[in-house]
């Protein structure tokens, strides 16, 4: 049976691990019928690890195609925001896929920024919804009035100003909230390493900010920064300044969003290229090659 590796990406850490255990993994990599790498660097690493050169093809990241919004909306975000007492023209900071520590930073910055932007509203979407109570405690400690997304299902509307923040403790809804953001902060980039997906808000032409730790999306981030499609900050102080600058400058937000969307549009098509790779390899009679069985030895 032919086996394909698609949307392949290798962190430096994984690459070093596979190299160190090459005696185990090289036969496995060599057996792959086709490998769809996200970029040149990943393709080179995969060839070095044992993938056959003719099996490796650069197709781009499937996340670019996956970021496109569905025709049918799964959630009515404007209705939810109205229910939370948010005015239609309010400025929205959305913290997407946040990790521990980032919600507290955004909450404190929100309180200071609201002095300049009285209509400001904060939406926090933790990467792991089971952390929602932890997030709520951090907000409560800092005096930020909030409600959980799940509460909106069971109670009536909040009065304008009754809450400052909505904590989205449901899954699969983040991209629909991105659609209505004024500024987006990408989580796991300030207090943790790796970063989360910046392509979804970019596909909707939003102004994006992320911290210094975007290792899992290094090539994507490079494209956004080179084409002025995002803002990268080094620490919390720079994040607050960047948020304030963008909240007060609609033209700059629109420019960033336009450039980010352009990057996404230039990178569409990985799904088609991946399918083409698979069909072509199958048409060429590519079959699975079983890796050599390692002999087991018994000690003692």
Notes on the protein architecture:
By secondary structure, the chain is of the alpha/beta class. Helix content is 41%, strand content 14%. The protein has helices at residues 12-20, 22-30, 40-48, 62-66, 77-83, 102-113, 132-141, 174-178, 199-202, 218-226, 236-247, 250-266, 270-283, and strands at 4-8, 34-37, 56-58, 92-98, 121-126, 146-148, 165-167, 183-186, 207-210, 231-232. The strands form two sheets. A seven-stranded parallel sheet has the order 6-7-5-4-8-9-10. The two termini are 38 Å apart. The model is unreliable at 293-300 (pLDDT under 50).
List key phrases describing it.
single chain; disordered C terminus; elongated; 300 residues; seven-stranded parallel sheet; alpha/beta; three-stranded parallel sheet
Brief synopsis:
The chain is an alpha/beta fold and about 300 residues long.
SSE ordering: EHHEHEHHEHEHEEHEHEHEHHH
Helix count equals 13
Query: What percent strand?
Result: 5-15%
Sheet/helix structural class: alpha/beta
Roughly how many Å is the radius of gyration? 22 Å
- Assembly of the depicted chains: single chain
Can you give the helix content as a percent range?
A: 40-55%
Mean pLDDT value: 92
**Tertiary shape:** elongated
Number of β-strand runs: 10
Distance between the terminal alpha carbons, to the nearest Å? 38 Å
Largest beta sheet: strand ordering: 6-7-5-4-8-9-10
* Low-confidence region ranges: 293-300
Sheet having the most strands: 7 strands, parallel
């Amino acid at each position: 049976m032919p086996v394909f590796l698609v949307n392949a990406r290798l962190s430096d850490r994984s690459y070093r691990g596979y190299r160190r255990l090459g005696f185990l993994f090289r036969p496995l990599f060599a057996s792959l019928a086709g490998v769809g790498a996200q970029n040149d660097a990943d393709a080179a690493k995969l060839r070095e690890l044992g993938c056959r050169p003719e099996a490796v093809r650069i197709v781009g990241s499937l996340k670019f195609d996956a970021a496109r919004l569905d025709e049918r909306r799964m959630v009515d975000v404007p209705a939810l925001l109205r229910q939370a007492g948010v005015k239609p023209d309010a400025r929205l900071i959305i913290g997407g896929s946040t990790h521990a520590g980032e919600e507290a930073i955004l909450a404190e910055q929100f309180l200071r920024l609201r002095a300049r932007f009285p209509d400001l509203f904060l939406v926090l979407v933790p990467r792991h919804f089971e952390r929602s109570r932890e997030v709520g405690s951090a907000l409560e400690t800092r005096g930020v009035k909030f409600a959980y997304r799940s509460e909106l299902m069971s109670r009536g509307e909040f009065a304008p100003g009754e809450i400052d923040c909505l904590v989205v403790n449901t899954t699969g809804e983040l991209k629909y909230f991105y659609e209505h953001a004024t500024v987006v902060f990408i989580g796991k980039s300030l207090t943790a390493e790796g970063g989360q997906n910046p392509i979804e808000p970019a596909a909707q032409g939003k102004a994006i900010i992320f911290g210094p730790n975007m290792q899992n999306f290094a090539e994507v981030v490079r494209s956004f920064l080179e084409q002025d499609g995002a803002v990268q900050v080094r620490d919390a102080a720079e994040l607050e300044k960047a948020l304030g600058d963008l909240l007060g400058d609609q033209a700059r937000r629109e420019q960033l969003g336009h450039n980010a969307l352009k990057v996404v549009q230039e990178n569409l098509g990985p799904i088609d290229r991946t399918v083409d790779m698979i069909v072509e390899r199958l048409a060429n009679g590519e079959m699975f090659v079983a890796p050599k069985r390692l002999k087991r030895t018994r000690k003692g």
